[in-house]
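Predict structure. Input: Sodium:proton antiporter, 563 residues.
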Amino acid sequence: MNGVQLLLVIVGAIAVTGIAQRRGLQPALVITLVGFAASFIPGFTGLELDSEIILGLVLPPLLYSAALNFSFVSFLRNLRPIIGLGVGLVVVTALVVGAFASWVVPALTLGTAIVLGAIVAPPDAVTAVAIGTKLGLPKRVMSILTGESLVNDAAALTLFSIAVSAVVGTHTFIDSPVLLFLYSAGVGIGVGVVLAIVATMIRRFLNDPPLETVLGLIVPFAAYLLAEQLEASGVLAVVAAGFAIGASSRRAGYATRLQERDVWSSIDVLLEAFVFAYMGLQLRFVIQDVQEAGGPDSVWQVFAAALLVLPVVLLIRPVWVFGSFGRNVVTDRLMRRKVASDERMRARIQRENAARAARGRKPRQFPVFLSWKESVVVSWTGMRGVVTLAAAAGVPLSLADGTPFPGRPEIQAIAFTVAVGTLLVQGLTLPVLIRSLKLSDPEQDAQDAEQAEHAQEVARAASTSVFEEFVRNPPASMPPEMVERVEERVAQRAAEVERQPDPATTEFGKEMGALQRRVIQAQRLAIIRERDRNQLDDEAAREFLAKLDYQEAAIESRFGDRL
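Output follows.
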């Protein structure tokens, strides 16, 4: 791909994204279809990107951005379903698809078919999360889908490397698949955390929003490359770095946080549009490779095989999700019956709750599982994307003895067809499914409202404390009548102290601006303290802290030249 082609693809993808969003269509689906149609333009040549470029340049920023803005507390809270979907389902999908493909595609052995299974195993949550955000999916569902997307890529790529090594005849760093995955995950996470600590220390030293943002842009690529050099998971290194820096971002200035939100949002849009455009543009030439390898009839054979593999890929996820749903329902009922009938257990739980209450923690509760409606949505969010694209491009050309990799054209054609098929089938029907199920959760809505109100109360108490201290000990240079004006203004806006006053005089505006800065700082610390005590939901805290950043920016804009 030359520079002009790359530029045209990016500009075209962005334009199509804007048109699709205006018309209420799914950008990923529209971009893919437009790309496929554009590939038939006379004179258009195939676009070839090395898989390392896709994995090393596209995947790290997408994963880092998702982890940076995702609550680690929510990740841990939903760890069981996330691991089940992100690891268990990936392995099962690879094995089932591999066994089925080896049966229906003569060119594939069991080993090469498992390579295909590993390629199509990991869903890409980009489209699903975008649809869910727009249609208001419950936070619990969104957390599970986002968390799954941060884990499943590492599992799929590890399985892919093991399967490819077995077929090619080379050896992985560690022969045992389990030990290899543990090493890859452990070292990858360690690299990400260490790099995040170093980056955080450097950011404190810089104390300059543009430089801090540039450093943040380097982190995901550095984490990925360093982990890959150690033969560990670059994906998990990026995710760990994103989580660690996201957790420490409160130590950065508000300007850095606001700037990073806009920068990463723009990068996400750019990369996602490019990936789906590349997928559409490449599909025609993948089919041509099959034709050149096996003749005209082979195209129809491979296409027919892909149409057989696609339903298998679509059905494995619902079977897995509803198998977990049924098991959770049975486990929940058995546990509740046991607690109801066991007096000793009830007494022990009461003692534990009393101890937790004394430490300021919430009482122990039964785990909350997905409802059947939520399970239906999660089971239908299996659209494939960037990892499938990169892994398909990364299938080796030859074996260790120099002979061609068996079934490579078929693997790539089926993988691309399945990826586009999931976008067509699930991407088109998912919005209709979500609307028809009416997934509003009154209990969750009430809890969100309660948490938002609690955050307001915590902030209000913190601001009141700052105002009272200001009135008791006003600046020595402030006249008494100005202190009275501050008291009057606070009394008028006690319930909404974050709004900015219009300064009547330069001195009054200066003092009010400085006071508002102290109020916001006190509110920020109070919200973080309440969240760390587990008295405030992490997502509610994040939303409120984001509002404080915008308020502080408004204060700086109005009073900055006088502070």
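The longest helix spans residues 296-341.
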